[in-house]
Predict the 3D structure of the following.
Amino acid sequence: MKEFIIEDTEQIFDVLAELSKLEVNPDRPISIKIDEFKSKRSIAQNNLFWSWMRMISKETGNTMNALHDYFCEEFLGKDLETVHGKEQEVIRGTSKLNTAEMTDFLFQIESFAASELGIRLPHPEEDLRWQTA
């Protein structure tokens, strides 16, 4: 699978050149999706997530990995994948989230920690790089 990020009109010609090389087979159709580019989650967002997991872990006694899986399943859900011919539920992770989706995820965790666990997670007010620009 190829992904193109087009930042100027000239790059459209590069994409068209790549498309012209494709061999179309009616038995194996291709899909082309054009969408607005959104940055993947930021390093600051990921660092904040894991610092929150560490804090919640200290308060609850759960491992950071167990908390990661819990929050991902709770707020991001699961996908079905076929593994060796068998349907398997797979918890969605954070690695494919864009910055806006990761911001929403962090807000959900922060809200849950406050309302369900009585834990106030630190908010990096002076460093809002973890939020959407």
